[in-house]
Amino acid sequence: MAKKNQNEMSFLDHLEDLRWLLVRSTVAILIMAFVTYFISDYLFDTIIFGPTRATFFTYVYFCELSHSLGFADSICITEMPFIIQNTEMEGQVNVFIWICVLAGFILAFPYILWEVWKFISPALYANEKKNAKVFIFFSSLLFFLGVLFGYFIVIPMSVNFVATFTVSPVVLNQFTLNSYIGMVKTSVLASGLFFELPIIIYFLTKLGLVTPSFLRKNRKYAIVLVLIIAAIVTPPDVVSQTIVAIPMLLIFEASIFISAFVSKKIKE
């Protein structure tokens, strides 16, 4: 990438642009958070606490998959032996606010990408600037796919694991509201941002900071890391771990392909 403007901006000018990027993005998040206030009942009862019920879509589908693969009821979930309790006076208020903010961030993500694109576009070539819609579309698509992956795969697998794991029948699982919500936020955001890996690799390759050979050389470490993550967030069975690991490995392989494509274009 190379800067095409004749009049180069000063460091303070860049900081000013960055400041307004953050201000406008924050306002967008707050507006969308306010919108989610009007559907807060559905947001909490159906979406946030959906994975705590045995009737959740993922559990039902996995049970049907278990039967179709000949594993009988090996990964079927019939009950969730735990309760979620609030132990802090302001606990539910804080959770309500932060979940609305999280939902606002997810909904405002395409706009945030647009702001980021405007910030980095002066450093792009003229033909690259025309790709704004493509960048925003694919970045948003990957992020939303990651959020859905985190919600429908990572969270249910994590909830199922911690709900059924016990060191002794004497110990009852009573999770705090903050710990459950923290897991939801981490799983959704981490998955959404992880699915942005191909976009990140694209720009890092353009900058010369990453090469296809580097990614291929470290593929084995990436595979081990993905399998470790899958083993942590899923029950101790091969089917669940495979379901979590495969999409993550595909994202990494797609990143290698994109890096190779960009490197070839640069050499041309």
TrEMBL record:
Lineage of the organism: Bacteria, Pseudomonadati, Bacteroidota, Flavobacteriia, Flavobacteriales
Protein name according to UniProt: Sec-independent protein translocase protein TatC
PANTHER family registered for this protein in UniProt: SEC-INDEPENDENT PROTEIN TRANSLOCASE PROTEIN TATC, SEC-INDEPENDENT PROTEIN TRANSLOCASE PROTEIN TATC, CHLOROPLASTIC-RELATED
The keyword Protein transport belongs to this UniProt entry's keyword annotation: yes
Physiological role: Part of the twin-arginine translocation (Tat) system that transports large folded proteins containing a characteristic twin-arginine motif in their signal peptide across membranes.
GO cellular component terms attached to this protein's record: TAT protein transport complex
Subunit (UniProt): Forms a complex with TatA.
Alphabetized Pfam families for the sequence: TatC
Keywords assigned by UniProt, alphabetized: Cell membrane, Membrane, Protein transport, Translocation, Transmembrane, Transmembrane helix, Transport
Similarity remark: Belongs to the TatC family.
Domain of life: Bacteria
Main location: membrane
Localization terms from the record: Cell membrane; Membrane
Coiled coil: none
Any single biological process term in GO: protein transport by the Tat complex
Topology in membrane: Multi-pass membrane protein
Annotated InterPro entries: TatC (IPR002033)
Gene Ontology terms for molecular function: proton motive force dependent protein transmembrane transporter activity
Residues passing through the membrane, by range: 21-39, 95-114, 134-154, 187-209, 221-238, 244-262
Organism: Flavobacterium crassostreae
